[in-house]
Amino acid sequence: MAVTGAILVLFLVGHMAGNLKSFFGAETFNAYAEFLRTMGEPILPRRVLLTVVEVVLVAAVVLHMWSAISLARRAGKARPVKYAAKRKSQAGGYATHIMRWGGVTIVLFVVWHLLDLTFGVVNPAGWDGTPYERLAQGFDPSRWWVTLFYVVAVVMVGLHLRHGLWSAFQTLGLASSRSYRPLKAAAAVVSAVLVLGFLAVPVAVMIGVIK
Ligand code: HEM
């Protein structure tokens, strides 16, 4: 869980930082998108390194989900008789729901997101548009519902990340009675920075700062 989670967190940090380039205008953002396709050249042909990154990302998502399912099964087998107490435990309440349903929502969001901003299938600028055009037209105020969907999904990503980071800290044995609060705060701050960084772009397009 931790290794695949770390790969996905690194991707999110890089992706958020890259998205913020849209504040510097169409040329800068499109040049960055072009760089993603040409990185590795001339040693590697166009798009090869990007495809490697994409394969690693897909593998990380699949293995992350597989680990989650097998860990849940192992936990179930270790405790075949349910606890008599009705009180929801950490493993049966908010955190489990947010991780399971949040995770599924994020996967569905990524499918929509790729159809929207990568392939242009559900985007007004379409496949022929530049990455910047897809961004600017995709979050047009008339398509407020798209932005709303992004806001919900990105908040889900933030909640997923906050709990995931906290779990990883515990797994690594970092959480003690003294470090409990600072580590929880660190997980919340990292997640909040990512959420705000991701939401800045759709919101900026909505209010006309990016056009
Ligand atoms: C809400 C703000 C977001 C914006 C504005 C945004 C923007 C973009 C854009 C413009 C692309 C296409 C890049 C290109 O064609 O070169 C892209 C690709 C992608 N985005 Fe996002 N994104 C956002 C959030 C997310 C989140 C939260 C995730 C994951 C949970 C995500 C996952 C991806 C993936 C997997 C790709 C495909 C990368 C590839 O081609 O290899 N995005 N995004």
Automatic annotation (TrEMBL):
Q: Which UniProt keywords apply?
A: Membrane, Transmembrane, Transmembrane helix
This entry carries the following GO cellular component terms, namely: membrane
Give the highest taxon in the source lineage: Bacteria
- Tell me the InterPro entries matching this sequence: Cytochrome_b-558, SQR/QFR_C/D
- Membrane-spanning residues: 49-72, 93-115, 144-165, 186-210
Please give the CDD domains that the UniProt record associates with this protein. SQR_TypeB_2_TM
* Keyword check for Transmembrane helix: yes
Name the chain's protein: Succinate dehydrogenase
* Organism this protein belongs to: Streptosporangium carneum
